[in-house]
Design brief:
Layout: H1 8-22, E1 29-32, H2 47-73, E2 78-83, H3 100-123, E3 127-134, E4 137-138, H4 141-148, H5 159-171, H6 181-197, E5 201-202, H7 203-215, E6 220-223, H8 225-236, H9 244-252
Parallel strand pairs: 1-2, 2-3, 3-6, 4-5
Helix pairs in contact: 1-2, 2-3
């Protein structure tokens, strides 16, 4: 099935198609997992991109839950699983890199899912809910997000397309023109590939951890050692979570060290 999760009419049509194809009036498991990463800044990203990112990452969870909730309730037992992110409790990718739309959406998913714990206990106690908060998992989200938003691939980016990237490089304290256009395109391509191929946890590994958590009845599922470390650090010193030294400490522990550096 193909479905734009940010479109409620398509989500409802998807639900109806599932019921028809599988001849069922109930669903035992629902995983709301769609997401893209963009809309980093209210200042430098346009409104359309920001809203599209928020609509998929938050709207997809909300519409999916609304559409399928009656089928979950119709089951003798059921489980709703919503994917947030470490960015659902830490709204950052580090100093100098705004991460606004995605983080706001993932915070919304976290709050919504936690609120459902009580809502379901009161109104449908046989339906359980879990909040999934992954760290770095090896997927194509970097490349696919650009495709969803109609952006050119790194190889197709013009010098004008690369200007915002150079601005980001400068905000990170690196020389703005340290890389030629071709080197910058190659670096962006490598970042997308490394995000998928050099992640500390594969998508299959993440799926196993999530399913294990669901079977165990856990409402809060941290996926990956980086997620556990980040959760601990934010809880220990929330007032320091957005200071430069926080990211340095996190990297010193061997986590979240994918960044744009000359030759890196």
């Amino acid at each position: 099935h193909l479905c734009d999760v940010a479109d409620e009419a398509q989500m409802l049509a998807f639900r109806d198609a599932v019921q028809e194809q599988h001849a069922t009036d109930h669903v035992h498991l629902l995983f709301n997992n769609a997401g893209i990463g963009s809309g980093g800044s209210l200042f430098t990203n346009d409104r359309e991109e920001w809203d599209r990112t928020f609509a998929i990452c938050w709207g997809g969870v909300y519409y999916g839950t609304r559409a399928f909730l009656p089928l979950l309730v119709a089951s003798s037992e059921a489980h709703l699983v919503n994917t947030s992110s470490v960015n659902g409790f830490w709204a950052s990718l580090g100093p100098g890199v705004p991460h606004t739309a995605y983080s706001a959406a993932k915070f919304a998913v976290k709050g919504f899912t936690e609120a459902l714990i009580t809502d379901l206990r009161v109104n449908a106690p046989h339906v359980k809910v879990s909040l999934v908060m992954p760290g770095h998992v090896g997927t194509d989200i970097v490349r696919n997000s650009a495709a969803v938003l109609g952006r050119p691939s790194p190889k197709e980016m013009t010098a004008e397309d690369l200007e915002p990237v150079r601005d980001q490089v400068a905000r990170m304290g690196l020389p703005r023109d340290a890389l030629s256009d071709d080197q910058l395109r190659a670096a962006l391509q490598k970042i997308a590939e490394d995000f998928r191929d050099k992640a500390p946890l594969s998508a299959a590994g993440a799926a196993t951890l999530i399913l294990d958590g669901v079977r165990a009845g856990e409402w809060r599922i941290l996926v990956g050692e980086d997620a556990k470390v980040l959760d601990r650090m934010v809880r220990a010193a929330p007032e320091l979570a957005y200071e430069p030294g926080f990211m340095e400490k996190l990297r010193a522990e061997g986590h979240l060290d994918l960044s744009l550096r000359p030759g890196g």
